[in-house]
Amino acid sequence: MTLLGDALISCALATVLGSGCFLALRYVFYAATYERLRLLLRRRGPGYEMYTPVVTEELWEGLGASVLVALGSWALASGHSAHCRLADTSACLLGWPHPAAPRALHGLFLLMLGWYGQCTVKRWAGPGRRVRVQGLDAALHHASTLALLALSYSVGLLRLGLLAHWLFTVTSPLLAASKLLHCLDVRPAKKVFFLVFAAAFFAARVLAVPLVLLRCTLYDAWLVPLDWRAAAAGNAGLLLLYCVSLFWFGRLLGILATGKLDGRPRMVLTAESRRWQKRL
């Protein structure tokens, strides 16, 4: 039994109502911080003001991701995942199709559905839509995550879904912080923090996903046996997210190889070049 009755109805209500609430909170967040951040960035120097939409959005993303990672870590550490964790995935599918799950875990899933519903549509709705603060690859990633969370909740795979979500999002707060340091051109912290983020990304999303998560979903799911349609759809979604992760990791290596971290933010350089052209 779910918190809102039927699992599919719960997913639909949590996604629609939750995304609406988060979009409203995002609007309030922008209204409260955007102008203040713009003035602070203007004082930092020419060109930094152009990064106001990016800085505002990364603060919002980092705040939301930090809350979800903290709640997921708490759920894993406190036993709400029933010993479905990094060190042991043997209980991830235990008791399916009617696994017992605490109400706190149901509530966490509904919260995540609302958050990723907002993340999926914010490119086209709410503040920042005109400057496209989110790329299509990020929107695809959020939409895939939303679909996998809804699938996990609908078929009763809450423990496995919690572990998968934690692995794919544990580095998100580090990503937001790394982007902020780059936009502000904070040296040498921006390069050090980027290296920390890249190492964490490699450990969690490049290594741990196939060694821990996919080993469970590609092998254990067929031994339960799990419904083949749920297993096929879930594994397809996880493999898609893993491919996106590999693509992003390749971009991280490209940033390191080209030395972009050693340069100044592009808009800052553009603003400074315009200023020198006026002097000449």
From TrEMBL:
Gene Ontology MF term list: sphingosine N-acyltransferase activity
GO BP: ceramide biosynthetic process
Cited SMART domains: TLC
Subcellular location: Membrane
Keyword DNA-binding: no
Membrane topology: Multi-pass membrane protein
Annotated GO CC locations: endoplasmic reticulum membrane
Residue stretches making up the TLC domain: 58-260
Keywords carried by this UniProt record: Membrane, Transmembrane, Transmembrane helix
Membrane-spanning segments: 12-34, 139-157, 163-181, 193-213, 233-257
Protein name, as recorded: Ceramide synthase 5
Annotated organism of origin: Tetrabaena socialis
Lineage of producing organism: Eukaryota, Viridiplantae, Chlorophyta, core chlorophytes, Chlorophyceae
